Each structure stands twice: as C-alpha cells, then as structure tokens.
TrEMBL record:
Belongs to the mandelate racemase/muconate lactonizing enzyme family. ENOSF1 subfamily. It comes from Engystomops pustulosus. Its cofactor is Mg(2+). One of its GO terms (biological process) is carbohydrate catabolic process. Keywords: Lyase, Magnesium, Metal-binding. This is Mitochondrial enolase superfamily member 1. Gene3D superfamilies: Enolase-like C-terminal domain, Enolase-like, N-terminal domain. It holds the Pfam family MR_MLE_N. It catalyses: L-fuconate = 2-dehydro-3-deoxy-L-fuconate + H2O. Residues 201-297 form the Mandelate racemase/muconate lactonizing enzyme C-terminal domain. Its EC number is 4.2.1.68. GO terms for molecular function: L-fuconate dehydratase activity; magnesium ion binding.
C-alpha cells in the first residue's frame, strides 16, 4: 500500500577518483571519474521509508545534473505518492514537459538524466513501501498498471497501448517458472572490468586470469584508439579465454562509419560477438550501414548507453541498425521509459543487453532485465548483462 506526501528531495554530487587508476577508461573517456547525482526523497508517512535514486555521470558534469534535479524538485515535493503511481504516465509527462525546462531537452541531455535520478528515487520508494525488490514490484503489477506508467507519445506507429497490453498479458503465462529460474540461477552476465583502455597488458592479463578463475565466461574489451594496440590486446584476451568463451568489443563512439567498418574487419579474426558504439550514438543510419557490413562476419552492433530516449530506440529498431539493444537506467527517463523500450525490443525480436558500466548502474539495470525475462521477452537467448567487478 503506497502512502505519504513527499516532503523533501535532496541531491548530492558524489564522485569517485576512478581516473587515477584508469578504471572505466575507454577510447573517448580517457580520464573518467565515476560520479552520480544522488537523490533522496522523504515523505511524511509514519514508516519513514526514504526513496533513493541516482543518475550516473562522469566528473564535473555532475554539477550541472545536480542543478537540473533541483530545478525539477518543485514538481515532486508536496505530491502524494499514491497520486503519482495511480497516474504515473501523467507524472512522467509533467517532469519531461515542464514549460520552463522542456526547451533544454526535450527528453534528452542533462534534464533527462536529472529526470531519471528523480524517478529512480520515486520507484525505489514505491518498491520499498510494497516491501518488494523493484523487479518483483514490476512482475506483480497487472499489464494495465504497467501500461499506465508508459508515455506512448511518439511511438504509437510501432507500439500502441493495445499491443503493449497484449505483450504483457502473454508474458503472464508460465511467469512463475521464469521467476523461479531467476531466483535459482540469476541472469547471465559479462564483465567489462578486465580490459579498460588505460590498463597495461600485465594488468589486463592478471584481471582476466582472476575473472576466469571466478568462472566468468564473457569478456568485453575496449578498443578504438590505436589499431595495433587493439590487435595486441584482443589477441592477448582471446588466447587466454579460448574460443569457448565470448568476446565483445566497445569503441565508445570513436569512429566514422567507414572507419568503423574497416577497423572492425581487422579485428574480426578474434571473433567478437558485437562491436559496441562504433560511431556517434545519434547516427542511426550509420549504425545501420555498419550492421549490414559486419553481418556477413557474424559481428553484431550493440548500442544504447547514450541513446537519449524511446524515440531514438524506435528508429534504431525500425532501421535494423542494432542487433543488441543496451538500455540504461539513467540515460532514459527511469523505469517508465525503459518499459516502453523493452516492449518495442520484444516486438522487433531484438535482445536487450543492459549497459551497466558506471556507478550504480549494475544495481539498477538488473531489476529491469530480470523483469524483461520474466514478463516481457521470456527468453535468455543472446541476452547478457554488463557487470563491473570490484
Ligand atoms: C566511461 C564508462 O566507463 C564507459 O566506458 C562504460 C561503457 O562504455 C560500458 O560499460 O559499456
Ligand atoms: Mg559501452
């Protein structure tokens, strides 16, 4: 039973000096300081439960996101949680369509990252009051309730409310067996933590050996700055993991379209499953061209960690420009917008492999992908979640 009026919203600028050890480094973010705008929501309910939410950022940009969260807070404070969740679609729209703030979005950039932080906190509060982890709250909502959280504006040409309802109603079939499977076995995952771009070969080898010992079977390697380095590092990892294990590549938007194709062809000998973010995250048709060129080599294109909103994901799907769709709990407008993307991916039969390379992301996206398996896709085929190791 949800209850309470939201009486306070605070936000903190939290930063970790990860750049000192080159943790999290890639071809475009060479000195990343993993950071977050961290939101806490309080209510006047007797239970004193608080909602915690965040959005992932890198370094100084956090200051701006914190300002945006403060600018949104008047839309949240003073509202009853019960009213918010009873009409979550409207609440989502109030945040994303505010007359004073919409111009600096809409539904993209800093203001959308801030929306995610605020809404992540609201969902956390709701789940805690219901005494369920978020994935379970979602799994046990009715299809009608779930659909009422989604803003279908701009996507009805590929997904109507009626189609979404049908997908979710079908997802209820044999749901218990999939829930049991998740509780018993968890969700399949890969690690990015062995092969950040700034790591030395020695470090890479040691981390890879440790991960193999721990039982990891899927590894992502950062590429894109220097072809000869990439060849050496991919060989090193492939030699260590063998051909029974999976290798993925991530260029973090480093290349032009043709450059991406020729560069990845040079790395094809290492049999990567996918190339992630080969070019600008906004270049939907460019991703389509790369997808077509690499398909004969058995290499898919993965993207999504910097895909602004559901409208862009819609077009990526329509253009067949990605083969692995990487949702992000902080890039999109929280659970609400991610629900629409999960449903569109189901319609296009594209596997969702969440992005989680960032502080707090692993913890957030696991709920969405477990819900996806139990209630939407019903499949684990070609699906893996990004995990950061300590
Ligand atoms: C800057 C981040 O560490 C980024 O490199 C993460 C990423 O691309 C991923 O996890 O994928
Ligand atoms: Mg990436």
């Amino acid at each position: 039973m949800v209850k309470g009026k939201i009486t306070g919203l605070s936000v903190k600028d939290v930063r970790f000096p990860t750049s000192l050890g080159q943790h999290g480094s890639d071809a475009m973010h060479t000195d990343p300081d993993y950071s977050a705008a961290y939101v806490v929501i309080e209510t006047d309910a007797e239970d004193a439960i608080k909602g915690y939410g965040l959005t992932f950022t890198l370094g100084k940009g956090t200051e701006i996101v914190v300002c945006a969260v403060k600018a949104l807070s008047h839309l949240v404070v003073g509202r009853n949680l019960e009213d918010i969740v009873a009409n979550f679609r409207d609440f989502y729209r109030q945040l994303t369509s505010d007359g004073q703030l919409r111009w600096i979005g809409p539904e993209k950039g800093v203001v959308h990252l801030a929306t995610a932080a605020v809404l992540n906190a609201v969902w956390d509060l709701w789940a805690k009051q219901e005494q369920k982890p978020l994935w379970k709250l979602l799994v046990y909502m009715t299809p009608e309730q779930l659909v009422s959280c989604i803003d279908f504006r701009y996507i009805t040409d590929v997904l109507t409310e009626a189609q979404a309802l049908e997908i979710l109603q079908n997802g209820k079939q044999r749901q218990e067996a999939r829930e049991e499977h998740m509780v018993k076995h968890g969700y399949p995952a890969y690690t990015t933590s062995c092969a950040w771009l700034g790591y030395s070969d020695n470090q890479l080898q040691k981390l890879c050996a440790d991960a193999l010992k721990e039982g990891w079977t899927r590894f992502k390697v950062k590429v894109g700055a220097d072809l000869q380095d990439d060849i050496r590092r991919c060989k090193l990892i492939r030699d260590m993991i063998g051909h029974d294990n999976e290798l993925m590549l991530d260029a973090n938007q480093r290349w032009d379209v043709n450059e991406a194709i020729s560069w990845v062809k040079e790395l094809a000998v290492f049999k990567p499953l996918w190339i992630e973010e080969p070019t600008s995250p906004d270049d939907i048709l460019g991703h389509g061209t790369i997808s077509k060129a690499l398909a004969p080599l058995g290499i898919g294109v993965a993207t999504g960690e910097q895909c602004h909103n559901r409208v862009m994901f819609k077009q990526f799907l329509q253009a067949r420009a990605l083969q692995y769709l990487q949702i992000d709990s902080c890039r999109l407008g929280s659970v609400n917008e991610n629900l629409s993307v999960l449903l569109m991916a189901k319609k296009f039969n594209i596997p969702v492999c969440p992005h989680a390379g960032g502080v707090g992301l692993c913890e957030l996206v696991q709920h969405l992908i477990i819900f996806d398996y139990i209630s939407v896709s019903g499949s684990l085929e070609k699906r893996i979640q990004d995990i950061l190791l300590k």
